[in-house]
Write a structure and sequence with these properties.
With about 450 residues, the chain is an alpha/beta fold. The protein is built from 15 helices and 13 strands.
Length: about 450
């Protein structure tokens, strides 16, 4: 669970408001940790923008002294995934193929909204190349390792972002989620991650992976932190009213997302369900057999490969040797899909979304293990292609269901103290973002109290 030394965004905002710390001091502390991390061989950041961050922090302190506080994010340092445009910087998506691209002329919409909310932008974070893996390995810039066990991965593709938050090198991270790239590293690193409904945060100014499935959202230390960040990113007024757990209705399924789950993950998931039942929630199993169709539906690479191929085909022709070849191989699967195959995928997606509305109608949220396994060890994944692709598929399996169904989802920690992190997925359909955040706050509070007891 969230360590006591990790202050939430709201806690840091209170310290700034009370004058217990300045934005400059807070930014200096996080930059110092980031520099120390890099000096020790850490690769969570691909670049730091310390001088500009401190200038922004000084301006934030001056504005606060004049009574101007844009939002709870004012003066709070945030890290940015290396596929969002930041004016004057290169958006390389942690790939050598884009390393010599022209600097961005304007901020991505998500970055501009964080600036408008007063956030301090510390630097760009490492990631799976082009965001095309749930494991976070990067042969070009190094692989961020799990902050709780350095022999294990941090998860991807927003690997560096999660590590910056876990190691207090940022109060929150801006990431993307096409098949789980926010929730997987959050689950593996003991953090909270929120994948919003895709349409809620504009993706203008980002390097795309799949136009149908991409979404942008936060990784942070709590549901409330994610809600604050999502409010800024979406432009929505998110009032985080946590309902009483008693009387809530939660559904879970053993179909597809409940299969081949690690013993530790299953134990933590079952314990969370028991705690919800003990608090008066109705928690029941339901059937969703149509999920078993997903491997066949996506057998040719799915929407991700088709849409990634559309964007990458010219770049692959010019600079294919500079790609991570595992990523290139997955993208090239899209070349084998014809127009009819693509339309079949879109039709299958619409059909399963309609079925999901019926299956999930009785419930306030759908619960599942965020990821079927705990963070795997890095070494076997670096050297064994078969192990890499099999593990990547299993890690992405549960989270990618929500992207395919155009839903929204939280991952909140649910493991016992001293164990490897496990994430509990709290999931809903499109447009239920505020509801899922509210439910997540209630569940988070219940689970944290239980663990502390």
């Amino acid at each position: 669970m969230m360590s006591k030394q990790h202050k939430t965004i709201r806690g840091l905002a209170a310290d700034l408001a009370a004058g217990r710390i300045s934005s400059v001091e807070l930014t200096q502390r996080m930059l110092a940790r980031a520099e120390a991390h890099r000096a020790q061989g850490g690769v969570a950041y691909v670049s730091l923008d310390g001088e500009q961050a401190l200038a922004e922090a000084r301006a934030s302190d001056a504005a606060r002294a004049a009574g101007i506080v844009a939002s709870p994010l004012a003066g709070i340092p945030i890290s940015i995934k290396d596929l969002f445009d930041v004016q004057g910087q290169v958006s390389s998506a942690s790939s050598l193929a884009l390393a010599d691209a022209a600097p961005a002329s304007t901020d991505a919409t998500a970055v501009a909204r964080l600036r408008a909310a007063g956030a301090i932008l510390l630097g760009r974070t490492n990631m799976s190349e082009f965001a095309f893996s749930g494991l976070g390995l990067n042969p070009h810039y190094g692989t961020p390792v799990n902050p709780l066990d350095r022999s294990r991965i941090a998860g991807g593709s927003t690997s560096g972002g999660a590590v910056t938050v876990a190691l207090q090198m940022a109060a929150g991270a801006l990431g993307t989620d096409t098949g789980g790239s926010i929730r997987i590293p959050a689950a593996f690193c003991g953090l909270t991650g929120f994948k919003p409904t895709a349409s809620t945060v504009p993706l203008t100014g980002t390097v795309p992976l799949s136009r149908s499935l991409d979404s942008a959202g936060p990784i942070a230390h709590s549901v409330d932190c994610c809600a604050i960040l999502h409010a800024a990113l979406s432009g929505q007024d998110i009032s985080l009213d946590a309902p009483a757990v008693k009387g809530l209705r939660f559904g879970f399924t053993r179909d597809y997302v409940g299969a081949n789950v690690d013993a530790q993950v299953q134990q933590a998931f079952d314990a969370a369900l028991d705690q919800l039942r003990a608090a008066g929630a109705l928690v029941e199993q339901f059937d969703f057999p149509e999920l078993l169709e997903l491997p066949a539906i996506n057998g040719g690479g799915g929407l991700v490969a088709a849409e990634a191929w559309h964007w990458h085909r010219a770049l692959l022709e010019q600079k294919g040797v500079q790609y991570d070849q595992r990523v290139a191989a997955r993208i090239r699967r899209g070349q084998q899909q014809g127009a009819a195959d693509y339309i079949d995928l879109l039709d299958a997606r619409r059909r399963l979304i309609a079925i999901a509305r019926t299956r999930l109608a009785p419930y306030d949220a759908w619960l599942m293990p965020s990821v079927a396994i705990v963070a795997p060890e890095l070494a076997p994944l670096e050297h064994d292609d078969a192990a890499f692709f099999a593990t990547n598929g299993l890690v992405l399996r549960n989270t990618s269901v929500i992207n395919f169904l155009d839903g929204c989802a939280l991952s909140v920690p649910c493991q016992a103290e001293g164990e490897l992190p496990v994430g509990l997925g709290i999931c809903g359909l499109a447009g239920q973002d505020a509801q899922i955040l509210g439910l997540g706050r209630a569940v988070e509070t219940l689970l944290r109290v239980h663990v502390h007891r």
